[in-house]
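Ligand: iron/sulfur cluster. Inputs:
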Amino acid sequence: MPPKGFACTQCGHCCLNLGAYQSCATAEDVDMWEEHGRNDILEWVEEIGPGIFDIWISPRTHDDVNRCPWLRKLPGKAKYICRIQDMKPEICRSYPHSRKKARETGCPGIWQAVRQG
Ligand code: SF4
Ligand code: SF4
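Predicted complex:
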């Protein structure tokens, strides 16, 4: 889950500039994709160590891509959506993690005051 009180503006910055982020999937992400037969997603994942998975790696060149292959721009709008919204990895589900991380990585998402508890 994203941080409490955070609202994404769908600017696409985080998904268009993957080089600025640590981009790894968890073993649970990979299990989920395997359980759902999402070989199209798994093609973009490389195991770089025991239980450590790098994303998004071009299946053609084996290089990291800077723009996520699952990002789609909405026609006529400066907004983007994720084509694997229900299947996106934990790192994307929890981004930007904190206000500090949002500031450091240039996320312009909106923070609303929320009551604690
Ligand atoms: S999987 Fe979705 S949320 Fe994650 S980087 Fe790609 S487009 Fe963005
Ligand atoms: S940079 Fe922040 S506001 Fe923009 S799409 Fe990513 S999470 Fe949403």
